[in-house]
Model the fold of this input.
Amino acid sequence: MSTMQDVGYEILGDDLQFVKIELDPNEAVIGEAGAMMYLEDDIQMSAIFGDGSQQSGGLMGSLLSAGKRLLAGESLFMTQFLNMGPRKRIAAFAAPYPGKILAIHLGQMGGELIAQKDSFLCAAKGCSIGIAFTRKFGAGLFGGEGFILERLQGDGLAFVHAGGTLEERTLAAGETLRVDTGCIVAMTPGVDYDIQVAGGIKTMLFGGEGLFLATLRGPGNVWLQSLPFSRLASRIFAAAPQTGGGGREQGSILGGLGNLLDGDGQ
Done:
């Protein structure tokens, strides 16, 4: 059995999807905390230090694995789901918000995929997950919207989540695409990327868009999402009632007038 195990799967649902993964005896998957939906009998759930890809490396390998996740802003621990029974069993993992789940066979991508920090959902055990160190490391630090890229390495299946609608673009050699940094889900290693300021200072202040754009240059494949979590969260926060009044209109012009009438505008 290879280190990166192949697993059967089925993706169900339309806009609120989940994936059912079939595990043979002694097969395992790893997932981020909170991604699990349900487990059949005989599947044992346990926390592992790092991503579980460096078990043969002893303590030092585990520390390096966990350190890469810490640099990417993730937890030091992941959850392992291992089938301890004699028969095939199902583990299901749900998308965190409306969108699409994408199954990618890392072996068919040259053994590597570059993914947005928050897009990883789960993968067959043996997948190495760490920060993508490149000569443009500063792009990840200053790209805005939490633009930190992770490197997924292995030769089996990995599942990533895209918010909203998913589009796959194939870039020819030298072809470029400018993308809002939050809208990137994943890309193959051959895609060159850089971060640039979006327009002049007037555009940055009054244009309503993000401060940064990612310039992607082929050759390679790029997966894009129409609804980044950061964008969804900002819309929810803007529409949520503000503290101190309790009314839905709190913080609006009408809310301000209501505060004056209620005596709260002192």
Q: What stands out?
A: The mean pLDDT is 77. The helical segments are 58-71, 137-142, 201-206, 229-239, 253-262. Residues 58-71 form the longest helix (14 residues). The domain at 8-239 is CATH 3.60.160.10 (Double-stranded beta-helix).
